[in-house]
# Entry
Amino acid sequence: MARNQIVAVERLILTVRGQRVILASDLAAIYGVETRALNQAVKRNADRFPPDFAFRLSRAEAGALLRSRSQSVILKRGQNIKYAPLAFTEHGAVMAATVLNSPRAVQMSIFVVRAFLRLRAWVAGQAELSERLAKLEQRVGAHDHELKAIIRAIRELVQPPASPRRRIGFRAG
# Structure
C-alpha cells in the first residue's frame, strides 16, 4: 500500500525552473485539505517559506503546466487560473505539513519525502548511466581507429601478390 502511495505522489512531482516541485493543489489533496487552506497557512507563515521552499509560478508556467496535464483544452466553469499556483520543493512540502498541523498532513509528508528521494535516486542513476555511456563511447572511438588499421593490414595480406614485372632487356634463350 505504501509503495502505491509513493508512486502516486511521484507522478505529481514536476520539474519547473530546473527544480522538482509539487503544485499547491496536488499537495493540498495529498494532505487532505483545501488548496485555499494550504495557501492561507503558507501566507500566515511566509517566513517559513523562502524561495527555495516555495515559489509562485508565472502565468505562462501555470498555463503550460495545466495544459500539459489536462486532456481537455477547454476549462470548465470556475477552473480559470485566477492566481498562479504555488510550487513547493521537497523542503517546502515538508514545511507545509508542519504549518497545517493536521495528523494526515504529517503522515502523508513521509510519502512526499520518499517520492522526492526516489526521483533523486532515479536522476542520479540516469547521470551515472550517461557517464558510463560516454566513457564507453570514448573507448570504442579509440579502438575504432585501431580496428580500421587491423582490417587494412589484413586486406593487404589477403590480396594476391602483384604479377611479376617484365624485365627490360634481352632474354637469353
In short: The longest strand covers residues 19-23. Residues 2-122 form one domain.
